[in-house]
Amino acid sequence: MAEPGPPRLLLASASPRRLALLARLGIKPDAVCAAAIDETPARAELPRAHAQRLARQKAEAVAARIQGGGRTHVLAGDTVVAVGRRILPKTDNEEMARDCLTLLSGRRHRVLSAICLLLPDGEKRERISETVVRFKPLCEQEISSYLASGEWSGKAGGYAIQGRAEALVAWLAGSHSGVIGLPLFETRALLKSAGFPIG
Hints:
Elements: E1 8-11, H1 16-24, E2 31-32, H2 47-63, E3 72-83, E4 86-87, H3 94-104, E5 108-118, E6 124-135, H4 140-149, E7 169-173, H5 176-180, H6 184-193
Parallel strand pairs: 1-2, 1-3
Antiparallel strand pairs: 3-4, 3-5, 5-6, 6-7
């Protein structure tokens, strides 16, 4: 009887950032497939529950499209920026981004980065990282300069910490990679538990 092949990994994300972060673990997915789901927060949904639900739904949506999944595992993630109970949007216009940056100026906020690994037998393994970030007080020139960079487009909370916004962060406690979009400590633990060869 032939030995089963190594586990296969499908990344349920179109994010080049998550792909690049996986590469830091020495992992290259066998396939990448975006999950098209409604990311609108449910009524009275808290930030942590929102991030966990979306990561789970993304994994399930992509797994449902797999034909003859075999040993395919599906990894999905979602990152939420929150001020208190308020979930900040993924900004799709400059006005939204300005509102977010103005709100975040000089104060702490949380970044919740959830991951879900869906195993071939349907088992779900989940982790979440919570990072506290504080921006320096931002003057109008700093906000306008950042908006002009265009980095805010499509980003939760209106900023990308892996870009120019990193110079605006006065203090951070938690997972830097989680703020980017994939918490590597938690992701490594999940993948190792599922039999992926990670050093």
